[in-house]
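note to self — DONT lose this again. spent like an hour looking for the file last time. sequence + predicted structure for the chain T wanted, 341 res
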Amino acid sequence: MSFLEKAGIFLTGFLLLAVMAKEIIALIADFILAPLFGMRVKSVSFFGLAFNLQNGKWVASKHNKTALIQHDVRFDDRIPVEKYDDKKSKWLQLTTTVIKILAAAAICFACRGFFAKDKKSPLDILVISFALGMVLQALTSLGIFLYTHLVLMKRLGGYVNTLLSRLRNGEELSSLNMQPVEMLPYENPTNTEKILYYQVYMAHLAASDNHEAMREPSHQAMNYIMNHDYFTQETLAYYWLIFYFSEVEPDEQSAKALLEKLGDIIRNDKDSNARRVLAYYMFNIQHNDERAEALVSEGFAALNTTRCLATERELERKLLTQLNSRIIAHKHSMTAQTDSQ
């Protein structure tokens, strides 16, 4: 074998197979362990196919293909929101990290014979690279866990967690007194932190009727999101961006680009926020009053079944009511024009 052939085999095991194995191990661990910590796997996504848990049923959707296996773990919506505990999330993350380390150690032990061979075949190289890749993935997971809880929690990411805790304790979205990320006392926030903050900030601005302040953060979020693959944890940011480019700054090209990346995910999402976002898109971009009105009705109906914070429910009710009034007024205007002719 040439050097390039050996390098190709090594990288296949070290990166591709090890990354996929790590994600599968994490997924299985979270499916089994998350309920013990009051949490559930709410979505699974791989190679352009997504499965989302809605009202106790798994719904399949398609989105732009990626080479990633992703899953999203959230608090169990069958448990009262007031009982959500961030410490349980931390302990679940630590437990799955330990499982990854133990899995890597077990794989290396099982493959120890391949390391001892003097002359290594392509299969030997693949197995060795896979075992080493698993060690790297396990150590990376540990590093991310430590960095997240020892460093990020003191930065913008920790502030976002504090905001969410305040909301769970009964504070209203409009009373959070949030500011643009540039005005916060956190130096060099990561793009991931900014997107997490954006999702809460947009809800705060919508609750405060401050649409003008949505402009700059939305354009920043759009530039970031459109330059990388879809991540399940950023779904809410997509929703707010579609709302922004449908309602605040109508832009058909931007709204369609976001919908294309999401694929069927938002269309299959029956929660009130997804119905509301699509309703605004249909009314302002597609100019389809009938479809927008139907989506508003679905959004109102979902308010009774969607498990969310009271302040989130009131925001959705407010935005749906505002759009519903505009749809009715527009239909009356069109009828009056027709009658006058």
